[in-house]
Amino acid sequence: MTHSLNRRRLLSATAVLGGAAAFATYAGRPALAEPAAGGLEALERANGTVIGVFGVNLETGRTVAHRAQDTFAMCSTFKAYLAAHVLQLVGRGERSLEQRLPVTAADIKPNSPRTEPRVGGDMTIAELCQAILQVSDNAAANILLGNIGGPPAVTAFARSIGDPRSRLDRFEIELNSAVPGDPRDTSTPEALAGGFRAFLAGDVLAPPQRQLLGDWMRANETSSMRAGLPVGWTTADKTGSGDYGTTNDVGIAYGPKGQRVLLAVMTRSAADDPDAENNRPLVGEVTATVFPELLRA
């Protein structure tokens, strides 16, 4: 793998997370990390994909970026925003984790493994949140969306935490159409990374709710980035996939010595092929490519 550098593809670390209050800036001037941009470009060519990356070492401020402000379909990565907003409402006393919501046959969509067996009954808000974060259950997401005011509530939550780009317009599974140029249900690697940082490591949520969200996300069963992490590391992350080969993973990786690395990886078909296959192994390869740069002293 070549390690030639393409500075035009790298963003200055001083531009980290935009400057909105919830997207906290880092003390001092972080070192500018220069990932193996040639390696990422080689992965793009080999896989026929466009790859967007934004990562930051939360201890050192070291930052990597590649197409970090390009627009990609969010797909199921929005479910972390949804769960975080629900937990914010719980912290305010506006919802209860024990509150039960009905599950009907009409709710069931493809990939609803935890809700489908519960048709005709109900599930707690806690169970629904775990279902969307750990197995990306689509019916659970729609049930929760219906309870909080629909997709606009997720967009409003994103704006409230300083995320200027992420937007949710539709329910599952229509939001996964990922048509190139369609602004609906989209974000950028940099914006999503900032949002995840705000509710997993910032003060958007009260400590009990932030801890619960992190615990639920560490139990994610769909992670793609974990395959590219060093031994002993784990993640609190959320994946997403859709048409046009869209394959995403965003979250915080935790090292055995307490290290924390925020990483957003978003990919799509370079040829705008609506039938392109999702490529989850590629997310692990991207993670393995940029991680050494994020850990460099």
Automatic annotation (TrEMBL):
A Pfam cross-reference name: Beta-lactamase2
E.C. designation(s): 3.5.2.6
Catalysed transformations (reactions): a beta-lactam + H2O = a substituted beta-amino acid
Record GO biological process: beta-lactam antibiotic catabolic process; response to antibiotic
Database matches in Gene3D superfamilies: DD-peptidase/beta-lactamase superfamily
Domain Beta-lactamase class A catalytic stretches: 53-267
GO MF, one example: beta-lactamase activity
Keywords: Antibiotic resistance, Hydrolase, Signal
Signal peptide start-end: 1-27
PROSITE patterns according to UniProt: BETA_LACTAMASE_A (PS00146), TAT (PS51318)
Family, per entry: Belongs to the class-A beta-lactamase family.
PANTHER family listed in its UniProt record: BETA-LACTAMASE, BETA-LACTAMASE-TYPE TRANSPEPTIDASE FOLD CONTAINING PROTEIN
Protein name, UniProt field: Beta-lactamase
Organism: Mycolicibacterium litorale
